[in-house]
Amino acid sequence: MNYEIKQIDKNTWAIENDGVRFFLLTGSQKALMIDSGMTTENAEEIGEKLTDLPIRLINTHADIDHISGNNAFGTALMHPAEYVNYFQGSPSHPTPTPVWDGDIIDLGDRPLRIITQPGHTPGSIALLDINRRTLFSADSIQDGSIFLFGAMRNITAYRQSLDKVWACREEYDTIIPSHGSLILKPHIIPELMTFTDKIIAGEIPFKEDEIFGIKVKVYETAAAVFICG
Fold it and tell me: How far apart, in whole angstroms, are the C-alpha atoms of residue 173 and residue 70?
């Protein structure tokens, strides 16, 4: 099990695992693990090394690099639009518990608000760490590679999700994604908007490639790499 723990602050950790990162957040009463990694058979054990608090799991979406350690938990909080992806990967995964846009998860003096972000996947979510003014943005807002190809991914929905999260930009100062740079500033969002608009309008050149047996168009921009169908 290959991973590296990076402490962001005294109550927040990033766990880097084979090209993806997941997180452990603690409050005064509970802990929350955001995703469970790419190759972690027991993500809960990693969390138990960092806190004695009871740990719940939430998945930002059900791509395989975010759910490998799920079976260590009794359930996973997840938007229901991800259930199809989730059980395609492994029918034996623990039954998920639904979360919805606007739901608050309070760890004890640390409330987190769910913000739905469809596009990368239908049920992708971000989590706003309200008091710390930090947005855990998963895959949708990052400066690495954004996958927008294959079944159930949609660039138009993705673009609308950027509008949604930018509309609450006064509520966060820092963005922490699951790929790419660990810490980003909010100005990346309008940059992603601009390049997404240009891709939709056919104004950016692309390279043809193949990923997972799927032919894709790769758009290398100053903000991120967009990989589209």
Answer: 30
Give the residue ranges of the chain where pLDDT is below 70: 1
- DSSP-assigned beta bridge partners for residue 6: 14
Task: Say what the pLDDT of residue 179 is.
Answer: 98
Write the burial class of residue 171 (CB in 10 Å: 0-12 exposed, 13-18 middle, 19+ buried).
middle
203 token code pair = 């104004």
Backbone angles phi, psi at 166, to 5 degrees: -70, -25
In this structure, the chain runs to a length of: 229
In angstroms, the CA 99 to CA 78 distance is 6
H-run or E-run covering 72: none
d(Cα 18, Cα 82) in Å, to the nearest integer?
22
CA distances from 98 to 56, 86, 115, 119, 161 (A): 13, 13, 13, 19, 20
Dihedral, CA of residue 229, residue 91, residue 142 and residue 194, to nearest 10: 40
Per residue in 37-77, pLDDT tens? 999 988 999 999 999 999 999 999 999 999 999 999 999 99
**Bridge partners, residue 160, by sequence:** none
Q: What is the pLDDT of residue 155?
A: 98
Question: Cα-flanking dihedrals φ and ψ of residue 170, to 5°?
Answer: -75, -5
pLDDT tens profile 145-161? 999 999 899 999 999 99
Q: Is 36 exposed, middle or buried (0-12, 13-18, 19+ CB in 10 A)?
A: buried
What pLDDT sits at residue 90?
A: 73
- Which residue is associated with the tokens 């639904």? 98
β-pair type (174-177, 134-138): parallel
